[in-house]
Amino acid sequence: MSPRRLRLAAGLLALAACACATAPQSSSRTPNIVLFLVDDLGWQDISLPLGPERTAQNARFRTPNVERLAREGLAFTQAYSAAPVCTPTRAAILSGQTPARSRITYWTLRKDSDTSAPFLGLLPPQWNMNGLQPEDTTLPELLAQGGYHTIHVGKAHFGAVGTAGSDPCALGFDVNVAGHGAGAPGSFLGTENFSGAARKGDPVWDVPGMERWHGKDIYLDEALAIEAVEHVGRALDAGERFFLNFAPYSVHTPIQANARYVEHYAGLDPREAAYATMVETMDAALGAVLDELERRGVADETLVIFTSDNGGLSAHARGGTPHTHNAPLRSGKGSAYEGGTRVPLVIRWPGVVRPGASDAQVISTDLFPTLLSAAGLAQPSDGVVRDGIDLTPLLRGEASASQRALVWHQPHYWGTPGPGIWPYSAVRLGDWKLIYRHADRGFELYDLAHDLGEEHDLAASDPERVRQLASVLGSELRRTRAQMSLGAASGLRVPWPDDVAWPR
Ligand code: CA
Prior knowledge:
This protein is α/β, with parallel strands linked by helices. It is about 25% helix and about 15% strand. It has an 8-stranded mixed β-sheet, with helices on both faces. The chain is globular and about 65 Å long. The site of calcium ion has 6 residues, from loops.
């Protein structure tokens, strides 16, 4: 028996013991789970308004299936990704650990290889460049132990190419369709075999396991939707509860139009039109899964979560003016500002979640304990410290959101210049957000209740609040054993935010 199998068996025994001791709710009543995690989908990239008013972007994009989900579910207006780039958020969902703690603070690609861009005066710390690995306890692993058939479809980007963690089946999934260590497809087109070879692209981006669709006139996420529906059908045929982790490769680069939808966006900047077709393709994939749940009569016993792994791309590769695509939020993917981390989140759980909207401040890390709880499973008692909170009392309407500090920590430079795109740590507490820039040890303070666009930096006029929030941020960073950026010349760690005198 392999070490992993042994561990699974031990886990099952532990679960059995737990069931005797705590008599959890009947397993027959726990829901199927669909986590639909879109790549790089911005807060404004859907036709469902999540801000104070309906915007031009809400009017531009066509996401009827997100709207459909929201009519029957709870739409969160202040949901956040755990990080402003891909891997740290994806790893946080699977591990339940905030990126500072897991040390998966940036996106991964190849084994032992640092993807951080150079930043004047700073070096990144020795972070976990290989991402999640089989020895890490993961959400799908725990759900599998609890009787769920666990299906991954689409982009994985959990562990680096050349490591075991690049394969979702090494991280607790029973099935993997198209997931591996790279975080973008060479091409979205079946006619190009989902490869960038025609453009002499690096084969590392070739989407694996999709040979069935090669040469066909099909967009990648259309093919993934068909595969997801097939695997859901097989699980239902076998009488199994399932966890479907459907992570479309859309709407990440390369921005490539889906010709089926181009006519919907006549008159738009061609690049933006192409992007809008990717959004619509993603939405249609969601719709295909929702339709199948209804067709099979299991929609009422399935929990569906729709969200994104980071804010919308705006610094490059888009049409129009850079850094404006997430307005009224400032900046976008890679940034410390709200455009980098505020994301759509809709949760439909028939019979449990009352439809409506919630302004609770929640973060991707919460999905780990929340989905275990929804599945009727105990939180792991393995001594590993995790960071999210179980949102099921909030979802059941049994509790209101309690105020807590949300922390982001990215001691890396994303590589494209733009507002807030630098190595940083940040905290949100109530309406207030403090950003700590590692390079110059400077602070920015924003009142998000009155300044959603982070236009008015109050750090100079309210130093007392800066010191209070710097203390909270410093405590959280030490508690999670965060690795700060290093001085390039000195090699010394950048000081904790509460060790910096303010005002200077
Ligand atoms: Ca992403």
